Fold F-box domain containing protein, expressed.
Amino acid sequence: MEEPGPEEEKEEEEARFDFLEWIGPDTSAAVFTFLDHPADLARASAVSRSWRRFVVRNGFSKIQCLRLCPEASNFTRIITKQAIASASESDAEHQHRAYMHLSYALLLDDPQDCIIRCIGASTTDNFPEETIQNTLVPTDWVAMMRPSYWSSAGHFDPAVPECLFYRLRSDLCLVQQINIQPFRAFFQYGDPIYSAKYVRFQMGYPKTPLPSQLLVSHDNEGQLAADDNYIWTYTSPQFPMLQESVLQSFKLPRAVLCIGGVVKIEFLGRVQKQEMDDLYYICGDSTAAGTRSRSLQERCGPQVLSRYSQIWRVPW
């Protein structure tokens, strides 16, 4: 077999020329930003060591993750569990791996109800009979055959808002839509429906850790349902509500990463007066709050993302 000549070796070397070197780093970076799926980025980084270094060094996994979920910009650094951390990996490698895991988790199609417990309501008319806890009861009736619903306190001013606060099952949940059913007071004349004109949603985290014990009680009724207890990282647009006692689904403009596991449902504009006292009320049925979302607690690998000046050691 003949040995290749100088010309053939030169042609073979040119055929193996690195595409990234040929078009230059700036143009290469522009091309890589068009990759819109973590699988594409993973394939590109597997082409060669130089391509992987280019992907990691330029933080394309973070750019892609922020495009999928802008709330991820609140993360400031990454902590890797000691048992899994590699001494040979740089901080850039740790960041690349973490954001790749998070991007994959964000794209998984596995919706579930993620509201796990109640935090509190801005007001309650008759506690505990009309507590926010009733909104998570899966039946229309509670003990002693009482109807299951939450009722706000009454107001002369229909513009006074009401808020319900809920805890999600994970510190990181991807929320896609929220379901609410207004309450029909079938025990009152005319079967009035105590809905609101509009509803708005906020997501965030508490400034101080929430207590592990029961949050809704006589002692702290309404105390945890105040805005100054929380940092909100997302606020939705207002959605009009139907004046009907049916399950109403409010799909967010995009899937939102709830950082901190707290959701606030804000009812804006009262519609229905109660005949006996001529006050406006808002009431939610037993199926009032159902969040179609995905818990990311066990989907994002070993890395831990931290946000702002606090370190949140989410048990991934």
